[in-house]
Amino acid sequence: MPKLSVIVPFYNVQQYAPDNLRSLRANARPDFEFILVDDKSKDETPAILERAADELSAVAQVRYIRREENGGLATARNTGLDAATGEYITFLDGDDWLAPGYYTELVAAIEELGCDFVRTDHVQATARARSVTRAPVGRRYEVMNPRDHILPAHRTTSVDYAYAWAGAFHRRLLDKGVLHFTNGLRTAEDRPWIWKLHREAESFAVLNLLGVFYRRGVAGSLTQIGDVRQLDFIRAFDQVVEETAADRDADVLLPKAVRTYCAIIAHHLSEIDKFEPAVAKQLRIMSAAAIKRMPQDALGDVLDTMDLRRASKLRRLRRRVTTAKAAA
Question: For the whole prediction, is pTM greater than 0.70?
């Protein structure tokens, strides 16, 4: 069994894949498994991966998988999870890269702590600028219960730090069905995943370890494109709310889920001009429907405690739903 499986989905990243693959080589060990998943790229990414797989196989275990159709990041990660054989599992996106030797330090830490998963800080790279983003947990190298780090509702917590690649996970989570993503989600795919991880895993720790360089502002990234795929955040957060409502601690956890959902809706509405006109209209309609679906008691409490600007946007949506329902 490999010590670590690294799942790396790629899609149309010919400009960035070489940096990614060089950083994998700088982290390679014979007991590491690199799973390179091409999500039906249309550029030169597959040719780059084929060459890299041959070169990396001299220093690590390598699997190159080319999907027959494009499924999006969540589905590509699931393809990698289905192929992973390592004792520990981590992720890396195809346009990001690593510091040399990072994975050896990561594995040593999770082995020493003996917990289900660990989280790390990361470096955000925007053009030539670099900034450190810290996981929102103060206690470091201490094994804790992840369920205890979902709340409080009004503050950024571990469950809001949704980057799948910022850490490592013991295989037992994969065997329990906790690590898979919701197939087909094109954006916000990390949100149902991170909530499930914090509800169902039993132990985690946060490390003072920097090694992942997260590239922001990539032209082809969905965060930069205002098309219909962006609206998958609604399906993602519907899942968060639905699953949290079924949790044994639903009464205390639901306000956090609803508050986060509302904040994301308000954020997208504040940037509605970036969307294509038809998608902007759909965003308003789908957001109003989402407001209607939310647990109304929790929603009322959230709107009473949010800042005035965001609460006003959401209350207008809520009124439209009520008015339309009365007219019908």
Answer: yes
* Longest pairwise C-alpha distance within the chain: 69
187, 229 Cβ separation under 8 angstroms: yes
In a 3-state reduction of DSSP, which class is residue 66? strand
In our burial notation (b when 16+ CB lie closer than 10 A, e otherwise), range 62-74 reads bbbbbbeeebbbb
Q: Which long-range contacts (CB under 8 A, 24 or more apart) does 26-31 make?
A: 26/98, 26/100, 26/101, 27/98, 27/100, 27/101, 27/102, 27/103, 27/104, 28/56, 28/59, 28/60, 29/3, 29/59, 29/60, 29/103, 29/104, 30/59, 30/60, 30/61, 31/2, 31/3, 31/4, 31/61
Kindly give the interhelix angle for 232-245 and 277-293, rounded to the nearest 10 degrees: 10
Residues 6+ apart with CB under 8 A from 66: 37, 38, 40, 46, 49
Pair of tokens at residue 158 = 């571990």
What distance in Å separates the CA atoms of residue 131 and residue 217, rounded to the nearest whole number? Answer: 14
What lies within 8 Å, CB to CB, of 58 at 6+ separation is: none
Burial label, 181 (beta-carbon count in 10 A; 0-12, 13-18, 19+): buried
What integer pLDDT is reported at residue 321 of this predicted model? 62
Whether residue 100 has a cis bond before it, omega within 30° of 0: no
CA distance 102 to 300: 45
In this prediction, the residues of the chain whose per-residue pLDDT falls under 70 are 218-226, 321-328
The token duo for 47 is: 């040719």
Q: What pLDDT was estimated at residue 43?
A: 98
